[in-house]
Amino acid sequence: MPLRIVFCGTPAFGLPALKQLIAEKDFSIEAVITQPDRPSGRGQKPATPPIKNVAVEAGIRIYQPEKIRQDAAREFLRDIAPDAVVIIAYGQIIPSELLQIPRLGWINLHGSLLPRDRGAAPIQRAILQGETRTGLTTMQIDAGLDTGPILEQREIQIGADETTPQLMARMAEEGAPLMIETLLNLDRGAIAPRPQDNSLATFAPPLRKGEGLVGWLQPAQVIYNQIRALQPWPGTYTRFRNRMCHIWGKPAESPSVTGAAEPGTIVANRGEIFVACGSETWLNVSHVQPEGRKRMTAQEFANGARFAAKERFLS
Q1: What is the chain's Cα-based Rg?
Q2: What is the pTM of this model?
Q3: Phi and psi dihedrals of 229, rounded to 5?
């Protein structure tokens, strides 16, 4: 008999796992629980969660409670009585009374090597902190925040130039077979859930908009980590002539811009823009998006701005 699964998730990070569960003969997806459709974009038109779109195509029953802490949600799950609930980036805290319903529990795919980086933004925080490795963890969730027993883990290297969307997509793909393996091993008793060592826990709270503001006293590599980590939101931005300006770039390697300058100082050189950073390092800015305008190349920005001598980006 295939394992009867309810899949609970919302953004694209869970798509590879859902698609593989649908394709595998060892599983029967009884329902998908996801967040309600929400207004999105300038037109505020209702947008469906990516997980819902796949479920619709597969003809899977969909449930979108405004709050999972409702009697109706409890009854919905009890009626199905799944063997396990797979939960990936759902976006709501699961009440403890629901955790007891599936016999194998609620199995979560988390984007870190727990107990490191518990919380909502483990992948972004790993890049922001300049980490060179992270990982994936499957665990049985409990009433705490990412504190449940660990089932399986897989280490993943972070590329030197990898951005959050790139790393997240790669980890989602690698997480799908890990989830399949975990469910099958758990069902046949081949996994001993391992309690987390709370003394080793670190935390990865949700991103805040203010974290996107560049501090030009920081070395260029730190700013580059910020640029890689904070895509697509909140992005990385600075102030230029009293207006906000999103920027992209990486540490400069050109010998023509070595040495010290006041942090934030702009040097335009042969169609490129270099900005002085802390520790006598320079950021080579590749693209700029001034407030209220489209993204443009550094050369296009320099041509329009006509920088004054020693003009600066400000924090």
Answers
A1: 23
A2: 0.93
A3: -75, -35
